Amino acid sequence: MFALLICAALIYLVIGSFEDTVLLSGLERKSERAIDALKDLSSPRALVRRDGETKRISSREVVVGDILILEEGDRIAADATILTDSDLLVDDSLLTGESEPVTKTLGHLVYSGSLVVRGGGTAVVTAIGLQTEIGTIGKSLKQISLVQSPLQLDIRTLIRRFATFGVTLSLIVCVGYG
Length: 178
What we know:
It is built from 5 helices and 7 strands, in the order ααββββαβββαα. Helix 1 runs antiparallel to helix 2 (18-42). Helices cover 46% and strands 26% of the residues.
């Protein structure tokens, strides 16, 4: 979309419409800023304590050894071991499929992608990225080879036949009128 706006602005510049060039350039910058703002909103954030300082950072910036501060409504950014808890209830359904949230206490593990349903606490990060439980599942899914169903094979054959028929008919029409 940005490339299209830039091309349109260049065309207006070439034909001499400077007002439209400036307008499109302004719209392009405004669109870019809006998309950056949306990216910031959609990027999961984590509240961590590093070097005695508490700050909210992008989930991608969490490292092993960080202290996660878990609060109600937070999506957990990495696998971690609970250090302190205050009536901590976590929804692990993304990972385990359990329909009920699970109570987590001192020493229990919390997993990346889980949701803090109630309470809060702190946890030390033990795994990030592909080393997390959800990352391990993702890696194993990549190794699964997809086998096409008989219906998919039949549809592929039908499409090839229609394509062959269409190309043949187009050639006959071109030769007939050529």
